[in-house]
Write a structure and sequence with these properties.
There is one protein chain. This protein is an alpha+beta fold and 389 residues long. The chain has three domains: 65 residues, no CATH class; 149 residues, Sandwich (Immunoglobulin-like), CATH 2.60.40.420; 99 residues, Orthogonal Bundle (Cytochrome Bc1 Complex, Chain D, domain 2), CATH 1.10.760. It is built from eleven helices and ten strands. The strands form two sheets. A five-stranded mixed sheet has the order 3-2-1-5-8, with no helix packed on it. Strands 4-10-9-6-7 form a five-stranded mixed sheet. α9 crosses α11 and α10 packs across α11. The longest helix is centred in the first third of the chain and has 34 residues. The N terminus is likely disordered. It binds copper (II) ion. The site of copper (II) ion has 6 residues, from loops.
């Protein structure tokens, strides 16, 4: 008994200490979660506002009904208890009671269903969008393709900041910033007050695109196309997550939507288009080893380190690249094929979406980093040659 109460006390102390540090470290994130948040996220779209209204309206109606029904019930039980000599009344087939208990709930249900249906239909109306963006779920990141509207043709991948992932893996979150596990390299950027249609799909498993402040949540299913929409009414940063439950890694593919003024958005589009043009490397270009290694290091940090670790040692089923026979092999095709096609049903994902130069760079990097001092240099042209095979 004593030992149990001791254990309990120490458990409470640890919990207390944990809550204590957590409260110090974590702050509200505007557009994202808040500390001790009880209500839904502050709405930034009409739809989200209406969802709030529905949520509260129904909660209040249900609470009023609950209190009324239970008050009558408990009062009756107490008032007509047996010790007072109460005799139960006997009334069968009272038409009045039956009509009342059918008609009243019917009216209440209609009162709740009408506004709910109106919002539901509005949520589904993705017509006349100013901008259409395809959001593709990958294990474990989002791909955004600007399909129509201003910015058409832009496409990029949005990945969790690797320092946040490292923090999560280490379990030491005392320094966690307010945007912990919500910081990405490339946020989705959209203009304010414009209707944005989001088309969702996925490349491997089911994902779900959710941004609470916009009141949107849509499954992203491989081989299917679904859509949703929002019109953000306030400039700012808004955060969401992949809301699919199956598999812990969905927690590491956050969504960050940056809402800009019309002018800032146009500026962003112009900048992106310039960058994209610069990135369109000539796959025929012949690279020097040093430049390739520098580029490969970046590609590795952004795409591979989450699984294979910065040390190249991997972990568990994730094979080490440091010392791997495939990486060391003088036949470059072996590793290039691993990257283009993936292995083991995607447990090592395919990277065909990376550019030829990026793949050549990361292959070169793994072949010359850690203890892998092969001196081998892989050129983009080799990737081009391997793509069709
Ligand atoms: Cu996911």
């Amino acid at each position: 008994m004593k030992s149990i109460s001791n254990k309990l006390a120490s458990l409470l102390l640890t919990a207390g200490a944990w809550v204590g540090t957590a409260v110090h470290a974590v702050q509200d994130l505007p557009g994202g979660p808040a500390v001790n948040q009880l209500n839904l996220h502050p709405p930034v779209t009409k739809i989200a506002e209406e969802q709030h209204f529905l949520h509260w309206m129904m909660l209040i109606i249900c609470t009023v009904i609950f209190i009324a029904v239970f008050a009558v019930m408990f009062y009756s039980i107490w008032k007509h208890r047996k010790s007072k000599g109460a005799k139960s009344a006997n009334f069968h087939e009272s038409v009045t009671v039956e009509v009342v208990w059918t008609v009243v709930p019917f009216i209440i249900v209609i009162l709740m269903a009408l506004p709910a249906t109106k919002v539901l239909v509005a949520q589904k109306d993705t017509t006349n969008a100013d901008l259409t963006i395809k959001a593709t779920g990958y294990q474990w990141k989002w791909g955004y393709d600007y399909i129509t509207g201003e910015g058409e043709g832009l496409a990029f991948i949005s990945t969790l900041d690797s320092s946040h992932r490292a923090m999560s893996d280490s379990g030491n979150v005392s320094e966690a910033p307010a945007n912990y596990l919500l910081k990405v390299d490339n946020p989705m950027v959209v203009p304010v007050n414009k209707k944005v249609r989001i088309i969702t799909t996925a490349n491997d498993v089911i994902h779900a695109f959710m941004v609470p402040a916009f009141g949107i949540k849509q499954d992203a299913i491989p081989g299917f196309v679904r859509d949703t929409w929002f019109r953000a009414e306030k400039i700012g940063d808004y955060y969401g997550q992949c809301a699919e439950l199956c598999g812990k890694e969905h927690a590491y593919m956050p969504i960050h939507v940056k809402v800009l003024s019309a002018e800032d958005y146009s500026q962003w589009v112009a900048d992106q288009q310039k960058k994209a043009a610069a990135k369109l490397d000539d796959p025929a270009k012949v690279w020097a080893l040093d430049d390739m290694l520098k580029r490969g290091e970046k590609v590795y940090a952004a795409n591979c380190a989450a699984c294979h670790q910065a040390s190249g040692k991997g972990a568990g089923a994730i094979k080490a690249l440091d010392g791997s026979a495939i990486v060391l092999d003088a036949d470059h095709a072996k590793q290039i094929q691993v990257l283009l096609k993936g292995v083991n049903n995607g447990s090592m994902p395919a990277w065909a979406q990376l550019s030829d130069t990026d793949i050549a760079a990361v292959v070169t990097y793994t072949k010359n980093n850690w203890s892998n001092k092969t001196g081998q240099l892989v050129q983009p042209a080799e990737i081009v040659a391997q793509r069709g095979k």
